[in-house]
Batch of 3 targets.
Target 1
Amino acid sequence: MKSNGEKSYPKVRNSVDVPREEWTGVPVPDSGILRDLVLAARNAIKENKKCSNAGRYFWELTGSVMRCGECGVAMGTNHITGRDARYYRCTRRYGRGVGACTMSKNFRAEKTEAAVWNFVSGVLKDPERLRAGLDEICLGSKLRRAAILKRKSGVGSSGSPK
Ligand SMILES: [Zn+2]
């Protein structure tokens, strides 16, 4: 409702697809990531289902992305409809009561998401940092795999079978 009492309506924007012949190519800088690695990653997640409960939002940090700093469980969102405000809160404390976790703070979604996006986009814009992070992930994965193989083969296990 406008101040003069007139009824107001939300703006509606329509978009029309442009034919492919009229598309404009945009050069994309080399990320430094091998094409095979990208294709393998896409293939690995092609069956993934949407894991966030963000229906109305472009993205949010649920789906185990954001963790409680006190107990480590996934943070969930709390949408306060009347104020149209969103917060992240510890799901353990919310589900089991205040004695379950000491994290009493709720985090404003806009502020939290902006901070995370700044971090993520900073990494994406810095190929060296991105490569170092991926190397670290690959190294961690290799070490875990090696530890599993070592355990299964019995190499390094103490004591002898009886
Ligand atoms: Zn917690």
Target 2
Amino acid sequence: MSKPGQIVLSEDFGVLRQRVPKGPRVVVLYDRNVEQWVERMVEESEEQKQWLLLPLDGGENLKQWVHVEQVLNDFLSRGVDRSWFVVGMGGGTVCDFTGFVASVYMRGLSFGLVPTTLLAQVDAALGGKNGIHLGPYKNTIGCTVLPGWVYCNPLVLETLPPEEFRCGLAECIKHAAIADASYFAFIRDQVVPYLQAAQGPTPQDPPTSKDPVPSDPAPSDSAPSDPAPSDPAPSDPAPSDSAPSAQAPIRLPLPVLKELIATSHRIKMAFVEEDMREQGVRKALNFGHTFGHALAACRPTIRHGQAVACGMALAAAHAVDVGILSQKEYEELVYLLTACGLEITQPCPLREIIPYMLSDKKKQGDDLQLVLLSRLGQYVFVKEPVAKWRNRSRNPGVSLGTGVIPQVSQWLDKVPWVELRLDLMETLSPIALVALRMQCMGKEHRLMLTHPLTSAHPLAPSFAPAQSPGKPALVLAQPSSTSAPTDLPENPQVPPMLAEMLTWGVGWVDIPLDAPASYVQEVTDLARQYGTQIIRSAHFWQLPEQDTAAGTTVADAADLGTMVAGTSGVPSEEILNSLAEKAFFAGADFLKIAVQTRSRQESDALLAWCDRQNAADNRYRVTLMVMGDDALRVRRHALRNGYPFVYASVEAGQATAPGQPSFSELDE
Ligand SMILES: NC(=O)c1ccc[n+]([C@@H]2O[C@H](COP(=O)([O-])OP(=O)(O)OC[C@H]3O[C@@H](n4cnc5c(N)ncnc54)[C@H](O)[C@@H]3O)[C@@H](O)[C@H]2O)c1
């Protein structure tokens, strides 16, 4: 008797028949689409003709509880008991499903698998992971039980649709990417030429910024090495009498196909044998899956292999972002995926798939465990704080300053949060306020209220005048002849509209750090009463024509309140530290620093400080709103690095701060 999980790779169906126990008590769960191969399997003897054959509709929908229940009931009504042997024949879905059903029925029947897709032959059927989905959450219910054997016959791939073949290649590329650079080269040099010959030209150029590369990738000064095969392409790889067609099955020469399957077997089983229960190294096989499963949950019609391909490109792009993978190797991976006919353009923004990533099995407490690459052929495990990814899923939001009533509802449907700049809106009549409330009904928790106090400082934003639609919403007061700051009102009242809207249970309220204590207390009490989180903000406006020396400098300012209101330059690290201390000591949930920078260096120094603050306690509570020429670059950095709130305007030309990019410019 062979050891459990043994893999047999053979074109001979007789080898399969020898593996199935003698006698009639055999149930075969098979995909209807492989009926002809089932017939090949049972054609031998009368005994085999008595096997119980149960056809299934293969595909992801099979892996739902309702179908498990149906099959278990069927087993029961047909008298299947523990003396029976189960054979699963089909793609990965049938293999996963069969392994699960066989393992749970009467506490477990012996079973064997006959994978009939490339994906199942190189991956899904190996290693004993059996399972089904829980609604949209992939493979959430399951068990780890090795099949008695796995029989892979490359001939059955003859009928496989080409897009399914390509999905299998995605898993082969995964094995190569995490474990074996020479296998990567084999796929590129020995497999791709046949695909190209069969389906016409595939991209020779490395990917461009349209691909899910980081939106602001590190500059790559060298073109990627020529990933084209070094040997000449096989002269006649496709059947000579058939014109290349995208729908024709992909036929690799048998030796190439067998080497492909066998190499993947070797790589996958090395991980499985070292770590059957997936406590350590086996997790590397999840490369591309955390992103890919989440993508598949968002877009249920996407094929598993296709989702994994896209997931690998996203994971590799993230590895470039965090500085562990070179842009060149990222491009080589993207090239190979694309050359194999795999689509790697993200079907939806990253922010939409992150919530599913955070429900994935790979989340452990406050950490999300990711498998990334440090180079081709070498995986690396990286833990990242969940808080960072939560922020990434919540951005960008939009800031509405004018024409607010007709737009709120539309934007609340479209973006994670909407900032209402109350200072840029007219005071609403009670009826208008009710109308606004009705538009926000059920989504109030996605509103952010910002109502900076009217500061008399010459460079403070002008709050009072309502802006007419289409005009720039933010008006900076002109510097007056005296550039020294004027004090804020001593006992400002919380505006009635703000107080009323806080009772709606909005998500966040922004309270300037320089607001007088009584005002802060009043807004805080209201916010806490209605479950609203508090953002404390500091604004450092810098008009281009202003001479910094003319204003009160930060360093000279005696107390923090004056500093914030009176600052006319970019704050030093010392000041930033004081602001963070003041905000968080007072119980703020978030800190926002708004600055108009004049150079890339100034912006970068601020970003570096924010990155350090966010990573220091893993709570990712500090955000930066840079205004001016550098706004887009800085906000992209903020998005990728999980800053809590990244602001956008609804459209170009409707910015509520100078240089503010539009939502479409920022959305990933
Ligand atoms: N257990 C694991 O370790 C593991 C690993 C990777 C993937 N998976 C799972 O595998 C599943 C994806 O597997 P898949 O891509 O094989 O999908 P699949 O089972 O849906 O098969 C793809 C399609 O090919 C058809 N088909 C299968 N064999 C055929 C053949 N020889 N000729 C013609 N048509 C054929 C099927 O009917 C189906 O329409 C996912 O559910 C994924 O979660 C599991």
Target 3
Amino acid sequence: MPDGVIAGFLAPHAPHFLYGENPPQNEARSRGGWEVIRWAYEAARADLERLRPDVLVVHSPHWITPVGHHVLAVPHLRGKSVDPIFPNLFRYHYDITVDAQLAEAIVEEAGAHGLLARAMRNPAFRVDYGTIVTLHMLRPDWDLPVVGLSSHSWPYWDGPTPDEEIREVDVLGKATRAAIERLGRRAVVLASNSLSHRHFSEEPDPPDDMSQEHHYNDLGYRWDVRMIELLRAGRTREVFELMPEFTREALPETKSGSVTWMFSAMDYPEVPGKLYGYGAAIGTGNAVMGFDLTDSIVAGR
Ligand SMILES: [Fe+2]
């Protein structure tokens, strides 16, 4: 089996999906809900299992670090994570094994690529819900080591600008790939990222009333469908040509860089993405998609 970056998943992190699953780690209880996305994750999990990775590497928009790129590098992290916006849905007890060697290698490579990067070695660090929801939905057994990367962005500061941010995460993706290849890891990269991201400011009562769940507006829905169709067709170059316009009009979390980072780590493959499912969470657009590189890696050797 080849090593290196073998696949990527677009894996959105609305806490609603995990809340709908009712895993024992979450204190909040639901009656289910958001099934279309949860069934999509079920199918993605089976494909992830077939890929047999050594490690999952995730970039999260909700671990925000205004100064530089930070990488989870504590071998074992245990604690409770609470979503600051939806504490009623997400209070999750986590127990995470980190591939600290790969984390340190990513920090080294990021530095060598000219980025400001730091290993996060504080054992009491509280892991964000973006990292946790994506990892839990794709691998609820938590039996694979992971590495988490922060989002070097801050919506209320002048810098980095969206353009600077995209350039930075492109380089971060290259550094991530270099570290994975140097250590010979068989890695799957995960973009913890929704698509269109305008959302309702009030929750239905109860929050899992699915008669109230729908896309916030038609503009966001149409942008999402356009981007999904391009990704399904493997038209990666066009996706990134459209990315600035998409980011401006649909306000997706792509401005935090996770999608660009993932595609850069995969070396912007023109492979058809597999769509597992698409749906709304409190109005935002969420697609679960997989990009399997194993055929192209074998063909390229
Ligand atoms: Fe988010």
